[in-house]
Amino acid sequence: xxxxxxxxxxxxxxxxxxxxxxxxxxxxxxxxxxxxxxxxxxxxxxxxxxxxxxxxxxxxxxxxxxxxxxxxxxxxxxxxxxxxxxxxxxxxxxxxxxxxxxxxxxxxxxxxxxxxxxxxxxxxxxxxxxxxxxxxxxxxxxxxxxxxxxxxxxxxxxxxxxxxxxxxxxxxxxxxxxxxxxxxxxxxxxxxxxxxxxxxxxxxxxxxxxxxxxxxxxxxxxxxxxxxxxxxxxxxxxxxxxxxxxxxxxxxxxxxxxxxxxxxxxxxxxxxxxxxxxxxxxxxxxxxxxxxxxxxxxxxxxxxxxxxxxxxxxxxxxxxxxxxxxxxxxxxxxxxxxxxxxxxxxxxxxxxxxxxxxxxxxxxxxxxxxxxxxxxxxxxxxxxxxxxxxxxxxxxxxxxxxxxxxxxxxxxxxxxxxxxxxxxxxxxxxxxxxxxxxxxxxxxxxxxxxxxxxxxxxxxxxxxxxxxxxxxxxxxxxxxxxxxxxxxxxxxxxxxxxxxxxxxxxxxxxxxxxxxxxxxxxxxxxxxxxxxxxxxxxxxxxxxxxxxxxxxxxxxxxxxxxxxxxxxxxxxxxxxxxxxxxxxxxxxxxxxxxxxxxxxxxxxxxxxxxxxxxxxxxxxxxxxxxxxxxxxxxxxxxxxxxxxxxxxxxxxxxxxxxxxxxxxxxxxxxxxxxxxxxxxxxxx
Length: 684
Hints:
This protein is globular. The protein contains twelve helices and 32 strands. It is of the alpha+beta class. The relative contact order is 0.13. Strands 8-7-6-9-10-11 form a six-stranded mixed beta sheet, sandwiched between helices. A five-stranded mixed beta sheet has the order 5-16-17-20-25, with no helix packed on it. The protein has a domain at about 5-45 and about 135-375: Rossmann fold (3-Layer(aba) Sandwich).
């Protein structure tokens, strides 16, 4: 029997279970990363939509539905028109006023310009909010809270994650979330390199696999993370959304809730029967909440069992041979079936698909992405205009036999005043609070780390934003509120800059303006969010996960590479503290007429300077070195604090039009070497 249907029979038991809750059976402290903390503020992302569906923005009272239509083999049905659809709200047929078919084809990854390079794994050093708007949003939820520390199962989790990453389309955005330890989590990105690295950080948690209350914290972490992710995706309109839940499932024994629990105390350390019954109902109750949220938000949850064929059965069987798993533990086969049935129920109730008892994960992944490759955006103006805050039930039908239709089940009517308030441009703080960057104001930024006299690293942030003033308009400055925040992976705000920038654009062609500021951060990994709000009504945001190096005691180290361009671009600096005499740029597309100079600082041990050999190489798109410069910094070129700097010129006037990598390397007389600093640029 389906999980949600089963629970409806037992909800009356909930009043009994509150006693065990009040007795302190469980207090869960779930570790949430900045990913989930910030995503909880996702009410401001309603404006994040597709450029190709601009007609959906014309009215705030338009109800938007993203609809999947699948045939008997779960393949997308393509080529439908608005006349093929019927939308019914609270029993009344509605008039469809907006319709778009979105077809991603086979969504196979294309060949990217840098994939053929020896430096293909080098990340870009400039990040922007020019993200694809018609691909899928995919969240990989890797269930480290419940997956056992069995080497093959752990490796299967990583293999499944990497296979999804490898098969994502060029327009897709993906994120990685863990249910227990989110230090390796990653927000939405196109970077397959970063996604694969996040997947590879997976480690099994501490689920003890006893059929008892001891496992409840792990199970609830898993369910509540799934709820947070589902809620976040539900807030994003006009996109195909999928959650891939890589988990062995949760063994819910609904039979234990159908009869009264036997009174008595716990004698084994596994919890009393009353406490165990309460745990089972709590898990089932919270799971159904997730299912209903996914149904209403049209979020498909695909479940994948990393145990493969009989993997969970074999693991539980091996545990039983070594230790007791509790007197109420059913037969091994029954427990393994409970794990599988959980995954099947979650997938079936949300329009997804369960991959269980299979070792061919690659084919299963291909099938999931195939059925998600085409959908329809349907919009209508409700015949009932009342903003009564009540839930409106929506049914979508297609005039084709033998098809399955997936769409959200309804929405809550919002009063017109609230709708107008919600449609107002947000502040810079609100602009950087959603799960996806806001694209209305084009933004880009680079982060350049430098050593300081403290244990913190100075990170120079260069933010470029596009003026909303028409190109033909001279005069009149634009004021932009700019917020730059750096969060730790536990969600704590480490450093922040709140600026009011006056963009002084002197000519029609100078439509980009740059603001340069500084964050002081301890070495480690941070999630950087930048929000911008113009006094002309446009907003934007851009996000990136940033690794901050440790320069406190290096044998040899390089700062980031700062590029300076002449003629200079319109820019303003804020609080650099004398770190740089000239403002660097985040522009990476140059003309042959411009002059480009690079700067890099070199650090070595104080009081013991030796010669450092530096090399700058410009590499073209065929991995051919077209420019090379060498310099030898003698020991006496270093200051008392062990630092020196090197300025070099990039001869763009001599380069053919195309894409290039600038690679700076360093070695010293002690045979120390450092990883290269790489900048990508284009000459036009």
